[in-house]
Amino acid sequence: MNASGETPQPLAPASIITGATQGIGRALVDEFAKGGHTLLLVARTETALAEIARETADKYGVAVHYVPCDLSTSEGCDRVAEALDANGLYCESLVNNAAIMTAGFFHDLDKDILVQKVDLNVRAAVDLTRRFLPDMIARGQGGVLNVASLEGFMPVPYQATYAATKGFLIAWSRSLAWEVFGTGVRICVATPGPIDTTIHEKGGAQHSRYMVYLPRHSAEQAAEAAYRRFMRGNWVIVEGWVNRIIASGVRFIPGVMLIPAVGWFFRVRDAAGNLKEPKPQKHPDQASGD
Ligand SMILES: NC(=O)c1ccc[n+]([C@@H]2O[C@H](COP(=O)([O-])OP(=O)(O)OC[C@H]3O[C@@H](n4cnc5c(N)ncnc54)[C@H](OP(=O)(O)O)[C@@H]3O)[C@@H](O)[C@H]2O)c1
Q1: Residue 202 a catalytic site member
Q2: How far apart are CA 59 and CA 108, in angstroms?
Q3: Residue of 66, 166, 210, 227 marked catalytic
Q4: Any idea what DSSP says for residue 101?
Q5: Is residue 290 part of a domain?
């Protein structure tokens, strides 16, 4: 009973999926809904969230809630926790999927977007996981699925910051998986190779060689594998034999060979395949305006 003498309603379990409006996140919504989970969807675009929530609830007969917010801010993460409380839910599964990528020479990329990338891809995952993991451990069930990338296994020139955020997720998830081992909670990290979504075009990498020469999977294939293996409790999810060879093979290739080769695949190009050159930098001693 609470102070007003009423028996409080027990909270219901929910799966939180960030970046749920497009690409892999959108496909993960279907996988979790097929599995019968109540959902809390998170992204910035409210109209898309509302439409996906309605479609998913109609198709799979599960309760679907949503919260529009910018997860690159800590206020955005607060809103996720508030939405859980407001709907009488607790977090059973957390999917840290939302991310942005921008490609090019680091020194040419917009500083605010680089910082936003670290805030969204890394800080939001740490913030949300720290909020919800203690309750999962107390209940002895649930899990966190971090969506990293094959890029997280190696240094990636021209997507350096993005790849490093994904490397963070891989190392961090593996460490946490060990820390929670035996509690009934699982921490998994999915590491997809190139997937057909709009992230490459939004990041300016649609003409890079990796988009031409590396095999690509669909968002649905990536989500199906991630969900299936998250449910099984696999710590590191690498799907497909080419991706497995790359993920394990890069450890044995000296950096002097690996980094230029990866750079060739990831260098930004135009539609005709011509290299995008770095912008000329003005010497600091040069008078402004000349
Ligand atoms: N595509 C690939 O080749 C590939 C390969 C390996 C790993 N991954 C990883 O898979 C995940 C999904 O990638 P994707 O290709 O599916 O990306 P995507 O199609 O660009 O979708 C990104 C999602 O994140 C949301 N989002 C972006 N900024 C946000 C913010 N500040 N706050 C809250 N939500 C935000 C977007 O919705 P709004 O715009 O409405 O906010 C969208 O729902 C990412 O972690 C990515 O690194 C992708």
Answers
A1: no
A2: 45
A3: 166
A4: -
A5: no
Residue 99's domain comprises 12-266
Site to probe by mutation for ligand 1, drawn from 18, 79, 195 as the one with most ligand atoms within 8 Å of Cβ, is: 195
Q: Count up the domains in the chain and report the number.
A: 1
- Is residue 289 one of the residues assigned to a domain? no
Active site annotation includes 213: no
B/e letters for 100-114, b = 16+ CB within 10 Å, e = fewer, are bbbbbbeeebeeeee
User: Which tokens is 28 given?
Assistant: 């993960």
Q: Report whether 268 contacts 207 (CB < 8 A).
A: yes
In this structure, is residue 81 part of a structural domain? Answer: yes
Distances (CA, A) of 192 to 52, 71, 219, 225: 23, 22, 10, 9
- Tell me how far apart the alpha carbons of residues 41 and 93 are, in angstroms, rounded to a whole number: 12
Q: Which own/partner contact pairs does 239-243 have at CB distance under 8 Å and 24+ positions apart?
A: 239/190, 239/192, 240/193, 240/215, 242/193, 242/214, 242/215, 243/150, 243/191, 243/192, 243/193
CATH number, domain with residue 50: 3.40.50.720
d(CA 56, CA 61): 8
Give the pLDDT score at 60. 98
**Three-state SS for 285?**
coil
In this structure, the residue with its CA closest to atom 23 of ligand 1 is 19
Residue among 44, 51, 100, 144 whose CB has most ligand 1 atoms within 8 A, to mutate: 44
* Ranges of residues in the chain whose predicted pLDDT is under 70: 1-5, 287-290
Q: What is the pTM of this model?
A: 0.97
The per-residue pLDDT for 9 is: 79
Residue among 19, 56, 40, 55 nearest 199 (CA): 19
Residue 274 domain-assigned (yes or no): no
